[in-house]
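My current task is to audit a protein record that another person submitted. Alongside the sequence sits a line of tokens, each denoting a local backbone shape. Please read both lines and tell me whether the tokens look consistent with the sequence. Do not assume that whoever made the record got everything right. Thanks in advance; the entry in question is below.
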Amino acid sequence: MCGITAYFGKRECSSILINGLKRLEYRGYDSCGISVINNKEMKTVKTKGKVEELDKITKDLKGNIGIAHTRWATHGEPNEINSHPHLDCKNEISIVHNGIIENFESIKTYLEKKGHKFRSETDTEVIVHLIEEFYLGDLKSAVIKALKQIVGTYGVAVIHKEKKELIVARKGSPLIIGVGEEEYFVASDASAIIEHTKEMIYLEDCEIAKIDENGCNITDLEEISIDKEIITVKMNIEEIEKKGYKHFMLKEIFEQPETLKQAILGRIDHKNYTAKLGGVENNLTKEYLEKVNRIVIVACGTSWHCGLVTKFFMERFLKIPVEVDYASEFRYRDPIIDQNTLVIVISQSGETADTLAALREAKKKSAKVVGIINVAGSTISRECDCGIFIRAGPEIGVASTKAFTNQLICLNLLTLYIGRTINKIDTEDAKTLINNIEKVPETIKEILRTNNNIKEIAKKYYTAKNTLYLGRGISYPIALEGALKLKEISYIHAEGYPAAEMKHGPIALIEKDLPIIVIANNDLNYDKVLSNIHEAKARGAKIIAIATEGDCEISRLCDDVIFVPNICDNLLPFVNVVPLQLLAYHIADLKGCTIDQPRNLAKSVTVE
């Protein structure tokens, strides 16, 4: 959500900043802008719309110190005036900001009384005017004084036209400093600067950095020096390129067999029939796990659906009650958790604001927290007690695909580890589970071969205005996920329901030719799902079924069928979700939607 890039060095920086913003487009935005300093002159260019438009009007922008931003509107409509950077009254100080300033109205009133003139409707603009109010020649000191006045979250980068320096600070919104040869790159995440350096410094909350010709000096807001570790990031530039695919989302769907292999690699102990999870073993000991009487999974969006799936197989194998909660609701109801509650937080980015807040609430109440994270060095990965990196690689498409399946496979491995550690999964069941887990990548490959068939089905339904997704048992969360994918990228209204709940309200929505996507694997719920299909067909619906290979009856009953390989029940979500990802993708593509950057959405939701 929003993106920051900044540069200090000897190179012309406008193209570096613009290219960085292009790498951050997946985060979601509606406007963008840039400020560059050249010989004590500062030029600022802003526009509503895409970075490519900003690129066209900044070709001649010169300077080797600069800041840039993509804005996702919170306060004030998307337009050029509200876009960042924001300037002080004298047009000498420029700032870009990610986050939300909760007390901006009172600060704005105070500053207006002091004579400051505001141009925008944003909360961000109060920061630059506060800096102006405090500025007496020392930019860092003025920034610190300003930040101490605000309540809320921020990732900020600040420049002054007469100062050869760049000031950056964070609280609740991620910022990374890339270290080059006599140059520094700043960004909201590593993807924006990985082409220039792999050496990164991750700022923590309430840390501030002054970057100038003497290097990078980092302190806290009391100006106490902090010695920061430089981390070498393993990401490669090739990982964030499309590689010939039309969209990142399609590329990431097709990457799933390989990313799932990476998630499994080296994590199975075939001798003892358990999982090897070095990131959790020192914390989730046998002594601790035997005391756990409840598991709480906290997440948002697609990760929440992953949590719902996990509840099914964790309760089945571990015989421990599992609750799944929206991170955005978790801490506002004073959750009842203690030292015997294991809390699992799931976040692709590792920066999701609500999930981070839930993590902190859980730790405050003495619970042990396990993170299921994709981004090394992210805030959640640093603050949880232990965790598992899902190894999905960079996910650029806003609609999550490969991160979802990698989260699921890692949570299957975690279940195996816990179950074997506390003797809840016997050797025969463990062998079966391992065998099936190891088959998942190749099974997904088989499903991807049906891509052309799914595209043909999409051609029949892409003009629909409404859809229903139905599933039972462990497939119910996948119905939710399928509906979410369609909503996110095609803007078609879609609702996911447990199939048995159709008669309790949703059946009223069924009318002639309404597309209903039904997950109908040949499992324990099969006959009941067939009954739901009959009920929908009787009311004129068009049925698209996800069904098990070899099911002849379903072909006679449904309008279209996508067949998937037979696999054990707890791994059905893998084979069911991939066709739904492809179906949503092809429908959105046929509609001409901006698939990788859906309107109003952000990849990483770093504000509440």
Summary: The chain is about 35% helix and 25% strand. The longest helix spans residues 427-448. The first strand starts at residue 3 and ends at 8.
